[in-house]
């Protein structure tokens, strides 16, 4: 059997509010598995002390990719809960433009309102 060739379908180079600490997110092409399911690999570096790499499984290639993106968004927004580093796509306080679950989206919105001084205690 020939070894699988991993293809990166999306490479994000994210900024942080801490100079010199870029965050890299790579989403790989979904792969069909012998079970009939699909898996999608993702790798992140720079957002924590060590790199994060995992495979996310779905019933088809689209579901595997969407779940991988949601996991990545959840992981990145969770790091953003800490005072530093704040992770962004283009400019500070920018949205990551990565799908996230509603509960994480609500927490991120609350955090952003609080940082802007618009949230009651």
Describe the overall structure:
This protein is of the alpha+beta class. It is built from two helices and six strands. The protein has one domain (8-115). Strands 1, 2, 3, 4, 5 and 6 form a six-stranded antiparallel β-sheet that branches. Strand 3 and strand 4 (38-45) form a beta hairpin. It has helices spanning 61-79, 102-115; strands at residues 8-16, 23-28, 31-32, 38-45, 52-58, 87-88.
* H/E series: EEEEEHEH
Approximate shape: globular
Give the number of helices: 2
Q: Count the domains.
A: 1
Nearest-integer average pLDDT = 79
What is the helical fraction, as a range of percent? 25-40%
Termini Cα gap: 60 Å
Strand content: 25-35%
Strand runs, count: 6
Structural class: alpha+beta
- Rg over CA atoms: 16 Å
Low-pLDDT residue intervals, each spanning 5 or more residues: none
Please outline the major beta sheet: 6 strands, antiparallel
Short description:
By secondary structure, this protein is of the alpha+beta class. The chain has two helices and six strands.
Notable features of this structure?
121 residues, alpha+beta, 6-stranded antiparallel sheet, 6 strands
Topology:
Blueprint: E1 8-16, E2 23-28, E3 31-32, E4 38-45, E5 52-58, H1 61-79, E6 87-88, H2 102-115
């Amino acid at each position: 059997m020939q070894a699988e060739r991993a293809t990166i379908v999306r490479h994000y180079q994210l900024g942080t509010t801490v100079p010199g600490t870029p965050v890299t997110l790579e989403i790989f092409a979904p792969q069909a598995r012998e079970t009939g399911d699909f898996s999608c690999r993702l790798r992140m570096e720079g957002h924590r002390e060590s790199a994060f790499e995992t495979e996310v499984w779905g019933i088809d290639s689209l579901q595997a990719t969407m779940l991988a993106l949601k996991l990545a968004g959840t992981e990145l927004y969770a790091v953003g809960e800490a005072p530093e580093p704040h992770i962004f796509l283009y400019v500070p306080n920018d949205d990551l433009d990565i799908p996230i679950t509603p509960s994480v989206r609500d927490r991120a919105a609350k955090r952003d309102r609080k940082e802007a001084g618009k949230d009651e205690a």
